[in-house]
Every structure is written in C-alpha cells, then in structure tokens.
Amino acid sequence: MPRNGKEPPSTKLPFRFWEIERFKSIRDRTRMELGHLTVLAGANSSGKSSAIQPLLLLKQTLESSQDVGPLRLDGPNVKFTSFEDQLLWKGPSSRGGKEKSFSICFEAENPRLVVEHTYERNNGAISIAEMTFGDNMKAGTVTVRESMSERDIGDWPRLKVPEGVEVKREVVRDRCFLGFELHAEPKDKESADNFRFQATPAQRFRNALMAMIHLPGLRGNPERLYPIAQVGGSKLFPGLFPPYVAGILHAWKDRGDDRLTKKLPAILKDLGLTWKIDIKKLSDTEGELLVGRLPQAVRGGGKDMVSIADVGLGVSQALPIAVALLAAEPGQLVFIEQPEIHLHPRAQVALAGPLLDAAARGVVVVVETHSRFLLLGIQEKIAAKSGYLSDLVKLHWFQRDPQTGATNVTTGELDKNGAFGDWPEDFAETAMDIERRFIEAPFEEDE
Q: What's the confidence (pLDDT) of residue 296?
C-alpha cells in the first residue's frame, strides 16, 4: 500500500530499475528507479542524456531493418560514429588504463528478473562480452557468452521434456541481446518427434524498448503539409515520434475519437496555445494541420482556423508531446527530451497536468528537463490532489564532480505535499542568486 493510502496504477512497469556503468560521464555503477513519471533534472552536460542514450541505442538496434550487429551507433534516435571515443568513460579508471566496455542492466519485479549486458570492442567489431540474467543478482544467476560451449551452458533455460528426449543448447545473438537456441530430439533416431526454437530471457525488456516512444528536444519546424502515415492500430513507432503525429490525428478523426475533439484541445488550451485543432486531408499521403487562431474559444470562432505554420513555435513543439501522452497505452514507455522548449513559463507549469494524467492511467513517462517551472508544476499538482500522485513520481538530479567529471545522481522522494527531501538546490539557488544580483546591481554601480 502506498504511503498516501491510494493505489497506484495496476499496470506493471516495463522495468523497475536500470543501471548504467562506464558510459560517457557515468563512470560508476549508477542505479535509477523508474516511476510512472520519472524526472531527470540537472545542469547542461551533467549526464542526463548518458542515462537514457543506452536505451535509445538498443531501441534503434532492435528496429533496424538489417542486423547491423549488437549496437547500431548511427540511427534516428542517437547518432555516434565511434564506440571508444564517444560512448565510453574517458577519465581515470579504477581498473587502470582505458575503459574498453560499458554495461546496462534492467531489473523487473513480479516476477523478478535481472538482465545485464556488457558491450565491448573485440577484434575491431562491437560485441556483447557477456549477458547475466536470473531472478537475483547474488544467487541463481547465469552468465553467458556467444562463444560458450554446450557444456558451459549447462541446463539453462530449464525445460520439462519427456523421458528419452535430449536437449541441445546454443547461445545465439538476438540483435542487442543474447538468447538460446534449443534443439530437442528423441534419443531414438528413428522418431521424427523433434523441435527447434529460440528462448530470449530478456524478451520483456526487448518488447518494452521496441514500444518506446521517443520525442527529441527539437520536434521539428511547423510545416504547411504533413505526411499522413498509415499508423493503423499499431502502438509501435519506430524511430522518432513526431513524424507520426499527423497520421495519428487523421486516424482519430476517421474514428470520431474524442482524443481529437476533446482531450487534445483541452491540453493545448490549458497550455495557453489554442482551443481547437483539426487535420484537413489533402490527398492520400498529405494533410494540413489547422489550429484555432485564438488561444480561447469565442462566439462564432469555430471556423477561425489557421495553418499550424502560421502560429508560434510553441504549438508545433507541444503538439507531439500531447499526442504521444494520449496515444500511449498503459505500460508503454514515453521519453521526452526538454518538453519546455519554446513554451512560456506559464505553459511549462501547466504541462505538469497532462504528464501526471498520463502517469495516473499507467503510461510510463520519462522527462529530461531544465525547467524549474515544470518541476514546480508537478509539485503543485501533487499537493493539490492531497498527495494521491506522489507515489507515481521519481526525481533524479544529475551533477558532475568538478574534479573527475564523473556523474553523480541524487534521488528525491516527493511527500503528499509535493515537497522533496535532501535535494540539490541548483534551480532555486540560481533563481535567488540572479534576483539578489538584480536588486544589488544599482547600488554596486553607485559605489
């Protein structure tokens, strides 16, 4: 039972914790808890992106039309050109010498499952050095490598097989994960009763990464025409999410979905951007996005619509966020980089509403932000609802050690009043400092 006396969403999180080690500025093994709304905050270059980019690397590797190896470095979600120079920790290493690998670990609950991968450069190519999995990282775990012999594999995964059936096991790579290929055949060679299949212990995490919705910090300039993608009923959005927005709106319009007629306009109105949105189909492949010219409804203003290209950038930046939050299903992971871009401080505060609404219905939202106003908006919403939402939110603050450059992560817990405990004071400290300097500036000039 949560501390506020109300039950959180019944939907399972795709994973409860993730850990990164030796990736970019994250030198030490860093463990972060996932909530239905997870906020990553901190100064520029403090390591926020380093905590999420490994997940995006796995996502674009799984979605690639070709098997490019264990990691696709240059893809739609993140772009790298060098494993050693751009992905690995570069400072002093506790191991001595340069780092040659990084690791990422996922941990789920109910049932408990832990999967850890270590990626390295081996003989000129990126490889999965090893994969560790099990129901407890201290006992009952198995570590496998691609080159393992059948004798070393043992009886993993364990199967119930009829008497007289022999099972042969082989470790195989499934894109960015390792799995097993099992071939069961009767010892009596005259029988044809045999089968072959693959088992992937990390299937749960694999599915979660492929279903992940990614909204980058720059969500595109407003256009006159948008492609109407055939999104159908799929909840998979390979690559970046913004190109799917017009197609989703068109599908909602065809079905008479109230997300287009009620829920989406309500979000945009609360943000102070517009009170109405529509899509006009111009051909089988293109459509025009129209928005209300005024932020509020007025008498006779139902037809006062203009192209999204003729209004401020705030609408085109906030629209993909609102659509993603409404389109995502419970349990689906939505990662939003800097949702506050091109938004007035009042809109940044208001954005806390749809983020928490999505979290409350079970969507798993991760936000990377520099906005003090967004954080305050989340705190105010929690306090206004008597703490009902506090158990949904996880706050992680990123700072870098000025001597080593290594990232340190501090986790804050929100209470029922929306307040957090021991938390770095960077946001509030900066605001108070500039206000003090502004007040004191005229007096300093007189001196």
A: 81
The pLDDT-based confidence of 198 (bands split at 50, 70, 90) is confident
Strands 364-369 and 37-42: parallel
* Strands (E) located in 268-360: 277-281, 286-292, 305-307, 333-337
Q: Which amino acid is at 419?
A: A
Contact partners, residue 395, CB within 8 Å, separation at least 6? 38, 39, 41, 375, 411, 412, 413, 414, 420, 423
227: helix, coil or strand? Answer: strand
Query: 217 and 239 share a domain?
Result: no
Distance CA 163, CA 178 (A): 29
The answer to whether residues 103 and 70 touch, using CB atoms and an 8 Å cutoff, is no
Residue 440: per-residue pLDDT? 61
Assess whether 365 and 430 both reside in one domain.
Answer: yes
Q: Report CA Rg, the chain.
A: 25
Residues 353/323, Cβ–Cβ less than 8 Å? no
Q: What is the DSSP string of 240-283?
A: -SGGGHHHHHHHHHHHT-HIIIIIHHHHHHHTTS-S-EEEEE-S
pLDDT, one tens digit per residue, over 85-138 is 999 998 876 666 678 899 999 998 866 778 888 999 877 789 998 888 876 545
Q: Is residue 180 part of a domain?
A: no
**Domain boundaries, position 86:** 1-145+201-221+328-447
